[in-house]
Amino acid sequence: MSTSPIFNRFWAKWPDEDEGPFHLWTTIAMIDGRPEVVGVEMFSVDPVSIPELYSNLSENESRAHFRQVRRSTDTFDEHEERDEMREGRAIGTQNIRLPLGKIVRMHMAPERERAESYLKGEWTTDGALAESVQSAAETIVGAPATPAKKAGRKPKPREDFEDVVRIYKEALSIGANPIEAIMTAKNVSKSCAAKWVWKCRRPPLELLPRTKRGVAASIAEVDNAAPKRKRKA
Q1: In the structure, what pLDDT confidence band is assigned to residue 31 with cuts at 50, 70 and 90?
Q2: Phi, psi angles (nearest 5°) of residue 226
């Protein structure tokens, strides 16, 4: 049996299957027996229209690379009529938060049906491809329908939040903005620093006193809020 990695590349309008407005190319590979996304390309403009200076692809190479097919094994006519794309629009952060599990299921469902029909003898291939197609079909049919679930992010230890409180308190002592001090010391965004302070104010930490929105606590309030650790006997 062939042991070559199984890769496939799919095209679809996104997030609406009919309206788009984006075009999404997804490369999927079988990793540890599961279909996993290994490449993503998203465009709000026709990628063929991007000059070679920036794409490093000639027009013909670009048309071949961005062919609008469901399977990489489908035939492609370089003269075929391309689906017209709407006028380009900016791609925002919310647009690239992709539900990869859903995308894999969407593309792999027809691949699974095709593989099952091959194993049932409903269609065949001859020659050198027969062995690799047989192996690929068996792998696809035997694989789970979705990628493996990734381990969640580990929660920050209490000691890290205690360090945030230390920075917060030091900033107060010199009349500085505590959030800006945390941003600088930890090299994080303002929203991240504010979120850490928010967590420090609430259970189970309660390392900082609760205040009105946008109002910093005083040093005395911070000292009163911070629980004293019991000394070991």
Answers
A1: confident
A2: -70, 120
